[in-house]
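#dry-run=false #mode=assembly
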Amino acid sequence: MNFDFSDDQKSLKDQARKFLSEKASSKVTRRVLDDAGVSYDEGLWRAVAEMGWLGAAIPEAHGGLGLGRLELCVLAEELGRALAPIPFSSTVYFFAEALMLAGSEAQKAAWLPKLAAGEIIGCFALSEGPGAPSASNIQAKFDGAALTGAKIPVTDGDCASHAVVLAKEGAGLSLVLVELNQPGVTRTSLKTLDPTRGHAKLEFKNAKAERLGAAGQGWEFAEAVLDRAAVLLAFEQVGGSQACLEMATDYAKSRYAFSRPIGSFQAIKHKLADMYVAIEVARSNAYYGAWALSTDSGELPFAAAAARAAACDAYALCSKENIQTHGGMGFTWEVDCHLYFRRAKLLALQAGSPAVWKEKLVKRLEQRNAA
Amino acid sequence: MDFNDTPKEAAFRAEARAFLEANCAPKVAERDRMNRSLRGANYLKAAKAYQKKKTEAGFAGITWAKEHGGRGLPPIFSVIFGQEEAKFDAPSAPFAIGLGMCLPTVIAFASEAIKQRYVAKALSGEEIWCQLFSEPGAGSDVAASKTKAVKDGDDWVINGQKVWTTGAHFSDFGILLVRTNPDVEKHKGLTMFIVDMKAPGVDVRPIHQASGGSDFNEVYFTDVRIKDDHRLGEPGQGWGVALVTLMNERLAVGGSPGPDYREIMNFARSAASPTGDGTLMQNEAFRQKLADWIVRAEGYKLAKFRTMTALSKGQAPGPESSIGKVINANQMMDISNAAIEALDHYGIIDDPALAPLEGAFHMSYMFAPGLRIAGGTDEILKNILAERVLGLPQDQRADKGIAFKDLPTGR
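#status=ok
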């Protein structure tokens, strides 16, 4: 039994934590939060690119570090913990994974080295309005060369240079790659629950685009990208949850009420114990997702759904109870509790809501049982 | 990352499997296991015979030192044997508390002569042990034990009552926590003894549980005499001894019995949806709840894999597997409740001849409240997580610096 990260992976995690505690303090996150004109922190983005993290899981032949998905998982946990205000997940978990999954050799050779070097920022455009996207409600249209339609919201769509978009092509759906800095694309920034990350509405009018993968395979590719992203996002969620638990625990030890630390009251202890249990459930499911992702196992669809369902629930609980443990102070703009509460909601919705993934989990278990 | 055994572990697992295949019946359905009373004489006989074979084959006391009849292997091998044993209908339950909790305490604190007398016979299943800690006035606060021991020559004389004693009715010996000095603070006046459960003055009475069954006992002590050489640790040091026993409890208490998410999934395929047409399995609200159960059950299973990983590498396991107690009892209640409520009015029927799965959900529903209390209430376990894992300060206590006899008891 070796159900844990290796010593090398753990030391990468330690390095990442040290690096991010210096370069991505909550001051950095707050610069993006407090300035509506800024959608990500460029300094941190450059620093992360210099560390090679953008290309951690990209093969060396394409300019990456050629590490594996497990290395990406430990980085994701630390980025989530730090509330890093950069378009890392959109670029790496969604855009790069879509390219590696569906792109031709020429497309990979064209884009992956630039992505690894931090020269392009990617995003993934699925949603077109309220409700879950499905194979039957996508309206954006690709005619083989140009894209027309609208996507809302697109996480990091306001700062990205390129997007992978799910669109109708003929009777089916296809994934298409679009350069966003062109006349056929209009972006409108969106006000969201988590202003530490940029969001936009993207409108395409005969925008020049190229297909990723075979025509008509778009939905299957999108689902596969979401499964991969779900595991990586789960690590961000576990990292954020753990930060909430540590923040609440520290506060409960030092905050006195009724002449004693509030952490000596059982009402607080049980709250924090519940957070701990939720995190361990989420972490264990995330590890299984990491194993399935890194080995390209047939278990990935099930493991990704379990990892995501557990991680969404854990972060929702931990970010909410962190505020509650801090009392009135926890409800102020100046204390960081709300940053996690906001990020928890973004991460719970970004790749599809918890209800959608719980349904996927049950359906996939039924499929596994039937097989 | 992988789920493979090391070559040594794989060899041991194969050896264990061969032994189990030769000596155990195939696994029976959970409901049959729950229905089978531990009070049956035949079951006990079979259990003792099985334990003897285990000892002869080297599968008893896997982690115990060789001088105590064990195999001296690291904990991972005990976990591996447990995993394999759980796949069979192995009658190992009567020994779980004795070998898991009592005997490690005896080994840690008894004299050489006493160890010679008791350890081997316990390991081979010849003698069964129970643990006598809880009292009517000392549950979560077990250090409030009132059962008293008074020195009389070379003997101690015991009077009082213990409760919730699993297996007392078939046990030969027990470890007994008693008060030897009521004039000092609560935790400082306790002493631990080995007691002969067949001694004059020991009276074992089954408890009629809320669930209808009788798995536990009350044990009354009236002028029961124990030789001083059967004392474990010094007089007044009993709390420290009890903590050693309770630390081993975390390792000895296993998963929850009763139908799990797989079984309710099977049930849901044919059961009608409580609202609208179709089956329960097609009911959206049910599917969402099912997902939560899957995530928690798999999360707990995988957390144990993480613990096994640490053990396999020879490291101290993290606290992650201690989440099981808090998850399992509640989950057992939720799952059985969902199955029962799906039946609408019919769900009130628990007659095995009429209820689904021969009443297993109903049995589980009525047993779950007890599971939330047994082996440390969920609340006490959350305190332990908060204090030992998260490092939160202890609650303020009303019993510090006060002699036990002067503590308020509320009645």
